[in-house]
Amino acid sequence: MKNYIFETIVITCSLFCINCFSQRKYTVKVWNGIAIQKTPSFTSDSIGKLNYNHQFEVEEDLINKRDTIVENGFKIPGNWVTIQTSNIKDYVFDGYTKRDYNNQEL
């Protein structure tokens, strides 16, 4: 009986964690917004932008390559994340965003 209860608790906790951490929530934190790129590259065609304080979610498995941009002498590290609208996949650089659970004030 003890093993059954323990196994049930472990399975329940695992499912909860998978659900909570399978998506990342982001908020754009630069005044002029961030560009939406066609491919995960700063030299790619920009097809739009996400405005300041725009919130979006990204599936954990849609986080792409690590990259760094240098702006005003400062290195800004981040990842290229895939944002999906319908069947279209485009990319934004998350170095200019805050993950919502890391940020108490939006």
Layout of helices and strands:
Blueprint: H1 2-21, E1 23-28, E2 34-37, E3 46-50, E4 55-59, E5 63-71, E6 74-85, E7 88-93, E8 97-99
Antiparallel strand pairs: 1-4, 1-8, 2-3, 5-6, 6-7
What does this entry show, briefly?
By secondary structure, the chain is of the alpha+beta class.
What keywords describe this structure?
1 helix, three-stranded antiparallel sheet, disordered C terminus, 106 residues, alpha+beta
First CA to last CA: what distance? Answer: 47 Å
What amount of the residues lies in strands?
over 45%
Structural class: alpha+beta
Strand order, main sheet: write it out: 4-1-8
Overall body shape: globular
Radius of gyration: 18 Å
N to C succession of SSEs? HEEEEEEEE
- Mean pLDDT value: 77
Q: Specify the number of helices.
A: 1
Structural description of this entry:
Residues 14-21 and 102-106 have low confidence and may be disordered. With 106 residues, the protein is of the alpha+beta class. A three-stranded antiparallel beta sheet has the order 4-1-8. The chain has one helix spanning 2-21; strands at residues 23-28, 34-37, 46-50, 55-59, 63-71, 74-85, 88-93, 97-99. Helix content is 19%, strand content 47%.
